[in-house]
Amino acid sequence: MLGSAPVVMEIRTFEEADRAELRELFSRAGEGAPTESLWGHEDSEAAIYLDPYMELAPESLFVAVVDGELVGYLTGCLDSSMMPSESQRMEKAIRKYHLAFRAKPAAFFARSVVDMARGAVRREPAPADFHDARWPAHLHINVEPRGRGTGAAEGLMNRWFDLLRETGSPGCHLQTLCENTRAVRFFERMGFAKHGPTPLVPGIRHNGKRLHHLTMVWAP
What we know:
The protein has 220 residues and is α+β, with helices and mostly antiparallel strands. The protein contains seven helices and eight strands. Helix 2 packs antiparallel against helix 4.
């Protein structure tokens, strides 16, 4: 009795011809995660977490291809100071897509303002852009459900680590959520360590509960 056909996987650098398929992958890759969608407006979220990397750092954007189709990607930047910060990218997306006038995003940002005000009154720490010369590079990684268990995530991360070593980078960081336990376990298995405080994230809710911001770091 013949077994199932082996999975054919390739990890490679982003190519311009991947743009449309990668954008489509972005819309489904986070399925099941607490941050599957931040405020229910996909184009603006892609403008923060995908598009700038295709434009500004395509040489450190890697894709996982299984049986000829994209199933995952890793966006990275070797020097975070060369990329607009997440806060700057978010502010630009809010203006470009007029999110204050869209129901779901407007509700999200209104809730964020309330959360930040309550946090200030209680003197709680707040999430912030991360800057530390020990870990100047950063990354985002996403693999869609059908690509999980294929080795795609490990392959993407190892390709990223190879780039960091080749370029002599002292290290990198990523930011996720404490409650995204599947992702946290994966990052720890790949050698990342938790770093710093874990403040509540303004605006975000998952199953009615607030979530905690987590920074993780890695050095070669």
